[in-house]
Amino acid sequence: MQMEALISAFLTYTKVEKGLAANTVAAYKRDLGKFAAFAEKRKLAVEELTRDSVVDFLSELYRQGLDSRSVARHLVSVRNLFRFALSEEALTSDPTLNLESPKVRKSLPTYLRMEEVDRLLSQPDPSTRNGLRDRAIIELLYSTGLRVSELADLKVADVERRMGCLRCVGKGDKERLVPVGRKALAAVQEYLEKSRPQLQGGHDSAKKAPSPYLFVNRSGNRISRVSIWRLLSEHGRRAGIRARLSPHKLRHSFATHLLERGADLRSVQLMLGHADISTTQIYTHVMEERLKQIYKAHHPRA
What we know:
The chain has helices at residues 3-17, 22-41, 51-63, 68-87, 114-121, 129-144, 148-152, 182-200, 225-238, 247-260, 265-272, 277-280, 282-298; strands at 159-160, 165-169, 175-179. The chain is mostly helical. A hairpin with a 5-residue loop joins strand 2 and strand 3. Helix 2 (22-41) packs across helix 4 (68-87), helix 6 packs antiparallel against helix 8 (182-200) and helix 6 (129-144) crosses helix 10 (247-260). The longest helix is centred in the first third of the chain and has 20 residues, at 22-41. The radius of gyration is 23 Å and the shape is globular. The termini are far apart.
């Protein structure tokens, strides 16, 4: 089987049979595209790839300036491709079988302090349509801990204002209910009443039906993940937040602040949509580090 055909079949498998999210499939496609280019450059067919070939590929990634975490992710993509090839009998052995993953230094998630959250929420201008929308986006991200793709995919009908929750489709097309705070619901309600109709007016209603998505851009279309990243970065900079602000930092802040105030780990896991509680346990390490800092700062004999 040709490399391009193998990758195409693998991507179809991940999307149709495994039901992986579009972003995950896209990441596989990018990583394996690099691997295919590497093999083509060396004129290696699929059955000619060896353990040394994979090691050379990883070494090239390092030379391109990628860090260990990124290289490890590429190896996971290649390893899954070869496992698929074995199951399809396109290969008789797996070149990555005894290949160790690059050592990745585990870093604790960074999060915002409460005063930084307050400063951030005060940045959008509520007298403008974009300001009302941006404030609703920030409130909802912090109130629910949604991933940026989950937020962008929300539809108006997904928000149950009377019940105080929303329906969200996360990784693996798994649906979950997430509670929403009063302030976030109020911000969303104000956006729906005052801002969204104006943004929806940016399209030609005679030719195009209104978007069902909750958050839209000035053309009345669903707001993109890139736009959400951009607006967060801009408001974060104006709020004086030193490190670049991302949607995931608000997700980390959501989880950390819940645990600081006594929420149990299992509940946080369900709200975040983590399949395995071990993923959520990273936040307990954040709490431990925070306690150590408090101890060192305030105990007279620390």
